[in-house]
Known about the structure:
Blueprint: H1 10-14, H2 22-29, H3 32-35, E1 37-40, E2 44-48, E3 58-62, H4 74-95, E4 99-103, E5 120-125, H5 132-135, H6 146-154
Antiparallel strand pairs: 1-2, 2-3, 3-5, 4-5
Amino acid sequence: MDYLWTPWRYTYITAGEASACVFCELLRAGDDPKSLIVYRGEHNFIILNAFPYTSGHAMIVPYEHVNRLHKLPLPAATEMMALSQRLEVALIELYRPDGVNVGMNIGKAAGAGIAEHIHMHVLPRWVADANFMTVIGETRVLPESLETTYQRLKSKF
């Protein structure tokens, strides 16, 4: 039997239900590199997913703590889409993917890991990136550290 050690995920799997919003806490931390905040806009910020599906997996998160897209004021929603476009271009330039997923899961039933604060996922995808490790082993293999991804994306913003 093979073992893949992922000690960085221990915090995630033992956290349970957090009483405070992780996005709001990271914003208040004041240490963007440590918090993986790549860019701060007027109404939204771009942050790396700490548990990514692929290298380059980022999210656009509004500063306003809302749990539904229709509650987001129009200027913030407009900026969210503009940042999604900028992020798409940056990911294509940096990673040369075969495609890009852009999407939002609203509510736990829709698959939101953090349902209380909406966020838009933008991530590069490659043909056959769902290989046997992901499908059978339920394990993701990422070729790049979060620190490297952070520096690469930060250079585009």
